[in-house]
Amino acid sequence: PPGTPLLQVRDLNAYYGQSHVLHGVNLHVNPGEVVSLIGRNGAGKTTTLKSIMGVLRSRTGQITFGGQDIARLPSHKVAARGLAWVPEERAILGTLSVKENLELPPARSGGWTTERAYEAFPVLRERGHHPGSKLSGGEQQMLAIVRVLRSGPKLLLLDEPSEGLAPVIVQAIGRIIAELQREGLSVLLVEQNLKFATRLADRHYVFVDGEVVDEVRREDVPARQADLLRYLSV
Ligand code: ATP
């Protein structure tokens, strides 16, 4: 029904062995929204993405996607429902060429073709026969994003897409995220780069020590700028 969030996470608790790292996280992403998770290193943002994808299985709570429970599904079935995750380490295949990297994930209807990827990122066409390991950090990030778009996801989970990239590349990645949103994709973004996050996201959840301590909407960012900076400062 209208007004139903695309993704809803309720009372998420997550554990690494004996260590309890997420303490009752609640969040949602509406259809077509870009939402950011911000906070210092170790605050639990990556763990939240892994919990949603079912990569981290030692967790409790409710996770629904399009109103359906996905918390018990293995990660490949979560992906098949329309979620795609680009991990922080970008997970491209270093020994395979750019073209092979693009063509390995199965294409699904509505997903990006290799040609579409090359149109969005002409540099990938130029580098088509280079091994993934020889790409720059920015090129690897572009490749990692377009690879997961092969499956035609509805929600893209991006873990620190701007990390370690030159400002001009950060801008290029930002433009693509904005374009994907215009095409109807929803995005859940982990970021420590506040400028990048606030340009792109409609809403922000602030993580401190495994909890969501604040939520800031785009229109409130100017008034809350000092708070946001304080949350991220070490
Ligand atoms: P970062 O930007 O550094 O990834 P984050 O906010 O995403 O930060 P998480 O990576 O989710 O934070 O980490 C949350 C907590 O869980 C931290 O205390 C971290 O040390 C711990 N942690 C993360 N991965 C593991 C693991 N594989 N085993 C044990 N503890 C872990």
UniProtKB/TrEMBL annotation:
Residues 7-234 form the ABC transporter domain. The keyword ATP-binding applies. One of its GO terms (molecular function) is ATP binding. It holds the Pfam family ABC_tran. One of its GO terms (biological process) is L-amino acid transport. Keywords: Amino-acid transport, ATP-binding, Nucleotide-binding, Transport. InterPro entries: AAA+_ATPase, ABC_transporter-like_ATP-bd, ABC_transporter-like_CS, BCAA_Transport_ATP-bd_LivF, P-loop_NTPase. Belongs to the ABC transporter superfamily. This is ABC transporter ATP-binding protein. It comes from Deinococcus koreensis.
